[in-house]
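Worked Example 4.2. Consider the chain below.
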Amino acid sequence: MKPLTITVCIFLSIVALATTAGVFVLVEPGTRGRLHHIATSSNLFLYRHALIGHLTEQEEQTLYRATCTRKCHSTDVIEEKPRTAVEWEWVVARMNAADRADMSPPEARSITRYLQRNFLSNVPTTLPESTMAFMKKHLWKSDFGEDDIYLDLIYIPRVHSALMPYLVAGRAGTADSQPALGPRFILYINTHQGTVPPWNLAEMATLRNGSGIELQANDWQVIYDDGQEHHRQGLLTFPAINIDDIAVIEVEINLPGIRKKHFLWDLPIPDFNPDQKDRTDA
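Applying the procedure from the previous section yields the following structure tokens:
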């Protein structure tokens, strides 16, 4: 009996070695070698079926390339057009079909995070080019980040309320139903490495009219959060104020531990007509 057991063990060992050798021969080595490729593929398989809960950034990149740029598009189609965090969520959801990318829920979340981290736009990209140009020139103000916190503030005068559906992450009805009749702003908060705390911006934002009047914000409504504390979007509103006779409005945002942010708009904001050339610089 003992010799038979030894023989079986030797045979199984030979089979295991042959199988391992076969895998090494048949599997593409990848840029970092066969062992690394096998380990990555194994982790991606386990992740797809929710058997592990985390991928490294390198594994997320491999998942993105295997899912999006090999099955669906070239890299140029995706990477040359950055989008906002919520827009990337929409894109991934639209592409997640059995006849398209066919992602599991964990895969969809990881690919969304990868796209948000690497190809992020601070302002919406779904608007026509002429509308975007007008918005960037007259309505959108940005700071360039401090302590890895980036703020983009878009003023929405009532006359330009038609922009709201494109700026409030699919919740235009909710945002537009707010009772406040004062100035409204869409605020984008992004961070690449840190986290966005659950700030109440209504307690941190002040509006000035250039004539000595200061107004504290009276409402902050979060309308998008990525769930990872990296990207947040909200509607910031102030009490009613007569802007007909003032030439400028300023919003100051005082975030804890960060220098005060100042955003300035010259008034009046011109009407937008996409068929006419913008001559406000003349």
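Residues 23-27, 171-177 have pLDDT under 50 and may be disordered. The CA atoms of residues 27 and 34 lie 7 Å apart. Compare this with Example 4.1 before moving on.
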